[in-house]
Amino acid sequence: MKITVIGSGYVGLVTGTCLAEYGNDVVCLDVDANKIQILQEGGVPIFEPGLEEMIKRNVSAGRLRFTTDIKESVDHGTIQFIAVGTPPDEDGSADLKYVVAAARSIGRYMNGYKVIVDKSTVPVGTGDKVRAAIIEELAQRGEQTSFAVVSNPEFLKEGAAIEDFMRPDRIVIGTDDDTAKDLMGSLYAPFVRNHDRILFMDVRSAEMTKYAANAMLATRISFMNELANLSEVMGADIELVRKGIGSDPRIGYHFLYPGVGYGGSCFPKDVQALQRTAEEHGISLKVLDAVEKANHAQKSVLVDKIVKRFGNDLKGKHFALWGLAFKPNTDDMRDAPSRVIIEYLLNHGATVAAHDPVSIHEAQRVMPGWQGLSYEDSPMAVLPGADALVIVTEWKVFRSPDFTEVKAQLKNALVFDGRNLFDPKRMQKEGFEYYPIGRQQVTN
Ligand SMILES: NC(=O)c1ccc[n+]([C@@H]2O[C@H](COP(=O)([O-])OP(=O)(O)OC[C@H]3O[C@@H](n4cnc5c(N)ncnc54)[C@H](O)[C@@H]3O)[C@@H](O)[C@H]2O)c1
């Protein structure tokens, strides 16, 4: 099938590339000329495991190309995916200006039936806005071409995006148009060959499903973080509690890891957007209010431990920091807890040497010229002379360090672990002072 993907970011690039992998003829559009130039020159503007090779393969096979030319991209695809950003507006609601702009550009150039598929995460009712924008553009040209609007929210996880897209748990398709339903069903059939995981529904339910999923996941994280904080005070170990409850199939093991709060490009903004939608309709989502508050507080948990240990004046203190991205296997720094932690340490007079396997360039972009913050290209290189090691992201490469070497490099054998990477007993044996989340600290 001929497919156009509007917006070549994390979701758009993965969507376009995976659809090309199954033999579709795909054009990816972006308004960011720099991004398109990188892609046209064989580079990839984001880090996502496996993506670069898959792009290369499909570009050389002639099934995938990149453009900034809107007319060309609208002409190309019978199915037009909208995968542009929906960042939070000032009041937390989803800013739909990019989605509406994309819809308008389709309306401006289309001639002939098109299926317009909203893949961006958008509030309930956005399908109607997309439809209205297209009708307006068509009317201005005196055109009456028919089209369908579909909601097809994306559930991929950054860091495992290719795997998630190629082997989805479910594919949600919201539409009331039979032709669009058939086309979308055929497009996704190769992705669900061993058993059918396509859920057809109406547009509004599909839009709501995406927010419901992210809000539920954010709730699990905040719930566990609050229980971790209580466990710590009560002498319980949250890691044992986690296993104790995860074994219940009604609860399950996923998304029960305590830490330094959720971040990234989705949970924070989607939780807020859902709250604003509810408010606009006179409904208060009390659980989500608490989820957000708890997450905000959790981003300071590691800092609170540091202050308790060193005092509020951190002048002259130097910290080694492992992990900048909001989670492993991505370079995404949007709403990353590391930013809150680093900002606090610097504002209180400390200096920070940070390492992350892939997101140093993104960190430099979002924290430009921050005085006292430096970067090193290996985990061990940040350690020399540091008063403590602070672990913020659970990259695999941090999990089995040479503890003797870590101890030898640090000024103090002191670790604040925001991801519970190590066994406290082992840390005690290795001679570390160790501060995990929701477990007993080791003070030696
Ligand atoms: N990142 C994720 O893990 C993830 C997962 C599921 C859903 N989503 C949702 O998918 C959407 C996209 O997220 P993302 O992380 O890929 O964003 P992103 O910022 O990485 O990419 C969006 C791209 O759209 C481009 N763009 C904006 N307006 C455009 C226009 N009118 N025409 C063409 N291109 C345009 C931007 O230049 C940018 O490259 C959001 O709604 C997000 O909530 C994201």
UniProtKB/TrEMBL annotation:
Binding positions for NAD(+) per the UniProt entry: 30, 35, 86, 121, 158, 269, 334
Residues in UDP-glucose/GDP-mannose dehydrogenase C-terminal domain copies: 320-424
Reaction(s) catalysed by this chain's protein: UDP-alpha-D-glucose + 2 NAD(+) + H2O = UDP-alpha-D-glucuronate + 2 NADH + 3 H(+)
SUPFAM superfamilies registered for this protein in UniProt: 6-phosphogluconate dehydrogenase C-terminal domain-like, NAD(P)-binding Rossmann-fold domains, UDP-glucose/GDP-mannose dehydrogenase C-terminal domain
Pfam families cross-referenced by the UniProt entry: UDPG_MGDP_dh (PF00984), UDPG_MGDP_dh_C (PF03720), UDPG_MGDP_dh_N (PF03721)
Top EC category: oxidoreductase
Binding site for substrate: 155-158, 210, 255-259, 263, 327
Tree of life domain: Bacteria
Keywords: NAD, Oxidoreductase
EC number: 1.1.1.22
Active site as annotated: 266 (nucleophile)
Pathway: Nucleotide-sugar biosynthesis; UDP-alpha-D-glucuronate biosynthesis; UDP-alpha-D-glucuronate from UDP-alpha-D-glucose: step 1/1
MF-aspect GO terms: NAD binding; UDP-glucose 6-dehydrogenase activity
One record GO biological process: polysaccharide biosynthetic process
Record family assignment: Belongs to the UDP-glucose/GDP-mannose dehydrogenase family.
Name of protein: UDP-glucose 6-dehydrogenase
Species this protein is from: Iodobacter ciconiae
